[in-house]
């Protein structure tokens, strides 16, 4: 009886920046960066998740850090599969490994070939059945939107590699857009700006920290500044530069535009009745990028729509995919119909 395995059914939010594993009846048990460190020569696993992310930009030649998902697609299938298997094993470490039902969340812009690759990785990791749920749908469910009602809900999920914008009604995605402008591009824009304005080279980790501590999409009342450490492009020596919140806002303008344009383009494509619903109900922001200060305010100004940040934007997708395993039969309709295996 399938029900005897209920405790092991899982949902995975396979994100470009973070992977979360939700276990039926237990909640989110794994929440780690989607980063893997391997021996360059042998490809042997050195570290996964937090430990591997610590190593980014700090590895000797023999070790390489890999982000298997780039721009919302699987850039390195083998490593992706290893990572997925590692995270699933973590959850099952001390137990009899029953073959679970697995719901995996993928970016909606993903191709059929990539979807098959994700499912294959799920089967390789030991799943009995793998189901796919589109990321915006999971995000909307996780953010508590009434996806089954005949009313338009817009969800904007700003992740590391992709921004997903979707309008959902009656349990289905009506209009959606997936663009590869997201959190990573914001980090890259900070790196580029520091190089151009201050001839200072920043590592990716530092750029992300600057974004989190100082970044904003709209002026706030408590603007601060911070000292940023990098390597001088000319002398090659470490140097510190003082940068203001306004500087960083200016630096990230281009990727912010990309994100805003995606929202506007989707609103443009939305049938009038549903656009009216969104005017009433507002846009919901999820994904780690939703935590960028003032992004909600900025979108409010740019779209004239009400905008809300989900309660816990980094976990919305995993919680939504988790709901799909908890209420499998009720939510089965939102799962992408089973494509033929192989
Ligand atoms: P993915 O689904 O692609 O794995 P996530 O939803 O986990 O992405 O979000 C990761 C992105 O969110 C990263 O680009 C990260 O830098 C960004 N992020 C996380 N916290 C913050 C914050 N406080 N401010 C701005 N960006 C943030
Ligand atoms: Mg995500």
Helical segment count:
12
Mean of pLDDT? 91
| Element pattern in H and E | EEEEEHEEEHEHEHEEEHEHEEHHHEHEHH
Question: In what range is the share of β-strand residues?
Answer: 25-35%
Q: What molecules are bound to this protein?
A: adenosine-5'-diphosphate, magnesium ion
Low-confidence stretches: 1-7
Describe the main β-sheet briefly. Answer: 5 strands, mixed
Strand order of the largest sheet: 3-2-1-9-10
Question: Outline of this structure?
Answer:
The chain has 342 residues and is of the alpha+beta class. 37% of the residues lie in helices and 27% in strands.
Please tell me about this protein's structure.
This protein is of the alpha+beta class. The chain folds into 2 domains: 2-137 and 316-341, Nucleotidyltransferase, domain 5 (2-Layer Sandwich); 145-310, Nucleotidyltransferase, domain 5 (2-Layer Sandwich). It is built from 12 helices and 18 strands. Strands 3-2-1-9-10 form a 5-stranded mixed sheet, sandwiched between helices. Strand 17 (283-286), helix 10 (295-303) and strand 18 (307-309) form a beta-alpha-beta unit. Helix 2 crosses helix 3. The radius of gyration is 21 Å and the shape is flat. The two termini are 26 Å apart. The protein binds adenosine-5'-diphosphate and magnesium ion. Magnesium ion binds at residues 13, 15, 135, 157, 159, 287, 317.
């Amino acid at each position: 009886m399938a029900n005897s395995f209920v405790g092991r059914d899982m949902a995975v939010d396979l994100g470009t920046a973070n992977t979360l594993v939700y276990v039926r009846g237990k909640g989110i048990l794994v929440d780690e960066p989607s980063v893997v460190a391997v021996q360059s020569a042998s490809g042997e696993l050195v570290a996964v998740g937090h430990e591997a992310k610590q190593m980014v930009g700090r590895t000797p030649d023999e070790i390489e850090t890999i982000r298997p998902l780039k721009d919302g697609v699987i850039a390195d299938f083998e490593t992706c599969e290893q990572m997925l298997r590692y995270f699933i094993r973590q959850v099952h470490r001390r137990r009899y490994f029953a073959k679970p039902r697995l719901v995996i969340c993928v970016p909606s812009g993903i191709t059929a070939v990539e979807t098959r690759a994700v499912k294959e990785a799920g089967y390789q990791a030991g799943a009995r059945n793998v189901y796919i749920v589109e990321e915006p749908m999971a995000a909307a469910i996780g953010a508590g939107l009434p996806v089954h009602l005949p009313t338009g809900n817009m969800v904007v999920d700003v992740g590391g590699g992709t921004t997903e914008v979707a309008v959902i009604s009656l349990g289905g995605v009506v209009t959606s857009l997936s663009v590869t402008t997201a959190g990573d591009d914001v980090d890259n824009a900070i790196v580029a700006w520091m190089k151009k304005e201050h001839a200072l080279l920043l590592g990716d980790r530092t750029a992300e920290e600057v974004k989190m501590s100082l970044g904003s999409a709209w002026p706030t009342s408590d603007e601060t500044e911070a000292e940023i450490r990098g390597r001088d492009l000319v002398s090659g020596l470490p140097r510190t530069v003082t940068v203001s919140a306004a500087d960083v806002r200016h630096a990230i303008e281009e990727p912010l535009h990309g994100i805003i344009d995606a929202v506007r383009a989707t609103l443009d494509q939305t049938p009038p009745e549903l656009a009216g619903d969104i005017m009433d109900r507002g846009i919901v922001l999820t994904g780690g990028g939703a935590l960028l200060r003032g992004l909600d305010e900025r979108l409010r100004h740019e779209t004239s729509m009400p905008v809300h940040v989900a309660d816990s934007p980094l976990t919305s997708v995993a919680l939504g995919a988790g709901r799909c395993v908890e209420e499998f039969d009720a939510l089965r309709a939102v799962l992408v119909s089973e494509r033929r295996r192989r």
